Amino acid sequence: MDPRMHPADPPAAAVVQLRAQPITLQGAPALLELYRAAPDYFDLLGTQIPSLGEVESDIGLALLDRRRHVELLCLGEEVTGLIDWKTDYPEPGDVTINLLLIRREYRSRGLGHQAVRNLEARLPQGTQRVLASVLGINPGARGCGRAWATALP
Asked: Does the keyword Transferase feature in the UniProt annotation (predicted)?
């Protein structure tokens, strides 16, 4: 058995592809639920899990920034993660992943890698580099870092 699979996981043929869904204000409760399912991320940052109002405010700000893309990562209808990325940052032609967050129970299954590959497949024309912003001492980001430390031709 694949060590990344759990006994309750469906067989490989039935595994659903990870889908990135752009967030809307209506997605704030789902994002808050995701944050609550990943308290270790906020512990790493030394902050509290935001309130629903704070999540709604952040989504509103993201929607006003044409360069920022906040997407829920879904397996079927279940929200399993988030990718927050920005174009032309810090330089024109750069794409920076500001946050890649996977629910604790879905980690170590390759979903972060799949999310980055999905993003790479739909990068805006003219993208020259994909960068990652990693805050704090984040051992989980080390493995993904190899996947997204990409200089494009």
From this structure: yes
Q: Give the 3-state DSSP-derived string for the chain, with helices as H, strands as E and coil as C.
A: CCCCCCCCCCCHHHCCCEEEEECCHHHHHHHHHHHHCCHHHHHHHCCCCCCHHHHHHHHHHHHHCCCEEEEEEEECCEEEEEEEEEECCCCCCEEEEEEEEECHHHCCCCHHHHHHHHHHHCCCCCCCEEEECCCCCCHHHHHHHHHHCEECC
Q: Which amino acid is residue 138, in one-letter code?
A: N
The arrangement of secondary structure in 17-151, i.e. its CATH architecture, is: 3-Layer(aba) Sandwich (3.40)
For residues 25-40, give the mean pLDDT: 96
Q: What residue ranges do the domains of the chain occupy? A: 17-151
pTM of the model: 0.79
pLDDT: which is higher, 14 or 72: 72
**Closest to 81 (Cα-Cα) out of 44, 53, 46, 110:** 110
116-148 confidence digits (pLDDT tens) = 999 999 999 999 999 988 765 555 555 554 444
**What are the tokens at 1?**
């058995």
